[in-house]
Q: What sequence folds into this?
């Protein structure tokens, strides 16, 4: 999420960023995700960001609204608001902070899903969510309880989970979808994932798009070198979080400001180090600079 | 590649005659290599003397028809070294060794361990990376690079994190230095690993369904992804059946397939009659009873 120097949302830049993604082939937008510092936005800001994006996109691609929250009722309300604003689907992680058992997770997701008629996608992101996992068993219960439960966005990268999920879930709901929540799409795609959420597309849209297309065409052997290049980029950016993403965007000529507190900006020698690491990635040479 | 179970008599002593039958069964039904004793072979519940005895039997029975590697991981590193030297002495084709158990070794300690192991023998050494079973202890891509550069007989890894990012991190590091470094995985997770540079897998359910193993391997390496997916999903249902009380349920399943191999040593349980009946029902539902060999 682009911010001004005094940490307000920079809607001009945000509009520019949306246009950039559409120009480079995004099939859908999902926002505001963690990479967009969703957790640092107020509820009103989240609604404002979504409304702005839907207005800007004007139906050219579907909009997936990210409605994660710690409180179930707050998340359900965000989902309702997203539907009213014209979102095409909603996506939610396991609740923040609480360390919920699977029964609590079921209740959380059922209430969010029941609040809307839109497809609900659920994130499985144990690394980001302090170890809380979405299990196959939970998914099967969600299929039984929610007609609009559409699929899982996987950030676990866990083969065992994904294979088990795709062995069991589509037998109950044939149009169940596994989506890759990161740019590690080759294994997920071989297992049956049909889509990918990408934050790195802001840095390297051509590379990410090429990877996605090869995976969609089931050309997994041809996708391997592209996946390796994406993995190299991911390795450079991952540990630095949204601050690193923003620093990388500045290096690519698409300045989106600094992250909001509590995240600290990447500057000084860490910034120089990131710049050097990005410069050493051959795959970035063909990527667009500036807007 | 198949890693045989360890047949036991009712008093839990080793059953050599049945072990010979298991080995021969795997060779005849399409195994590309034999590796023994994996955790599934109850390695840690066998004495070092027992492990040597059966290692000798494995080399003798397989008789160079396919390669035999010996899994030498033991709680004490001294025992591991002893098993490695023994494997070389008896004519095994290589060894497999996991990162050390229990102590949560640092990367430096893992480095020293594999360096010592590789320099103790002339055989090819396969490493074994299994962070989810070893409290997060793992070989990083960077450590893999160092080991490959230093040790000519460090030839591959059983990468059992079962995680896209970790597998690719190691594959990228290793294959850049040595194109024929063997990126292997476990269970039968070929569908997600082959596209990332994987060349094979050890098998969990091979003593039940060798035909399915071969079909899955062929589909993945030929890039027939729709077929590979269907086969991998079928294999996953078997893994769900057997990973519970592994390898007890596997031994229970072998009874159903007409290849009984006896009980499982404590603390692992032995599959009860009820459990066997459940396994029978599941194998029947999956069509395994009609498509896989019965008896030896």
A:
């Amino acid at each position: 999420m682009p911010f001004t120097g005094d940490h307000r949302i920079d809607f001009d830049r945000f509009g520019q960023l949306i246009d950039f993604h559409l120009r480079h082939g995004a099939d859908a937008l999902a926002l505001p995700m963690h990479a967009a510092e969703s957790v640092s936005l107020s509820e009103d800001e989240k609604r404002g960001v979504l409304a702005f994006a839907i207005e800007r996109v004007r139906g050219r691609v579907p909009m997936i609204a990210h409605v994660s929250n710690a409180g179930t009722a707050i998340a359900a309300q965000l989902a309702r608001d997203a539907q009213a604003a014209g979102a095409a689907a909603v996506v939610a992680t396991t609740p923040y902070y609480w360390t919920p058992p699977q029964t609590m997770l079921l209740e959380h997701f059922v209430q969010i899903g029941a609040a809307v008629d839109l497809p609900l996608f659920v994130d499985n992101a144990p690394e980001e969510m302090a170890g809380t996992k979405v299990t196959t068993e939970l998914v099967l219960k969600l299929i039984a309880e929610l007609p609009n439960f559409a699929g899982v966005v996987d950030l676990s990268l866990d083969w065992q989970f994904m294979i088990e999920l795709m062995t069991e879930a589509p037998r109950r709901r044939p149009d169940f979808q596994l989506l890759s929540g990161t740019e590690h799409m080759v294994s997920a795609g071989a297992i049956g994932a049909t889509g990918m959420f990408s934050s790195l597309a802001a840095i390297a849209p051509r590379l990410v798009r090429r990877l996605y297309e090869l995976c969609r065409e089931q050309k997994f052997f041809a996708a391997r070198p592209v996946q390796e290049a994406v993995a190299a980029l991911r390795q450079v950016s991952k540990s630095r979080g949204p601050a690193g993403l923003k620093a990388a965007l500045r290096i690519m000529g698409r300045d989106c400001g600094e992250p909001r507190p509590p995240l600290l900006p990447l500057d000084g020698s860490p910034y120089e180090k990131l710049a050097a690491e990005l410069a050493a990635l051959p795959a970035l040479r063909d990527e667009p600079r500036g807007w | 590649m198949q890693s045989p179970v360890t047949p036991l008599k009712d008093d839990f002593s080793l059953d050599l005659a049945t072990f010979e039958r298991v080995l021969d069964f795997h060779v005849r039904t399409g195994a590309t290599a034999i590796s023994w004793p994996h955790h599934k072979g109850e390695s840690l519940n066998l004495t070092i003397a027992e492990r040597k005895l059966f290692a000798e039997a494995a080399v003798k029975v397989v008789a160079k028809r396919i390669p035999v590697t010996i899994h030498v991981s033991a709680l004490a590193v001294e025992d591991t070294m002893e098993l490695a030297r023994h494997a070389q002495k008896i004519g095994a084709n290589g060894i497999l060794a996991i990162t050390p158990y229990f102590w949560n070794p640092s990367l430096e300690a893992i480095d020293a361990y594999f360096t010592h192991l590789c320099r103790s023998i002339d055989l090819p050494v396969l490493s074994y990376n299994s962070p989810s079973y070893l409290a997060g202890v793992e070989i990083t891509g960077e450590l893999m690079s160092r080991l490959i550069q230093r040790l000519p007989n460090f030839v591959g890894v059983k990468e059992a994190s079962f995680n896209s990012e970790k597998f690719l991190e190691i594959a990228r590091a290793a294959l850049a230095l040595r194109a024929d470094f063997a990126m292997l995985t476990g269970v039968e997770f070929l569908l997600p690993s082959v596209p990332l540079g994987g060349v094979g897998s050890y098998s969990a359910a091979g003593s039940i369904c060798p035909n399915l193993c071969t079909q899955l391997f062929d589909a993945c390496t030929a890039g027939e992804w729709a077929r590979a997916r269907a086969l991998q999903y079928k294999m996953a249902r078997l893994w769900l059946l057997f990973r519970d009380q592994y390898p007890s349920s596997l031994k229970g399943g072998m009874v159903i397939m007409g290849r009984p191999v006896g009980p499982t040593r404590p603390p692992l349980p032995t599959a009860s009659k009820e459990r066997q009946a459940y396994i029978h029902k599941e194998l029947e539902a999956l069509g395994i009873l009609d498509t896989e060999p019965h008896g030896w």
About this structure: The mean pLDDT of chain A is 97. Residues 220-238 of chain A form the longest helix (19 residues). The CA atoms of residues 70 and 97 of chain A lie 7 Å apart.
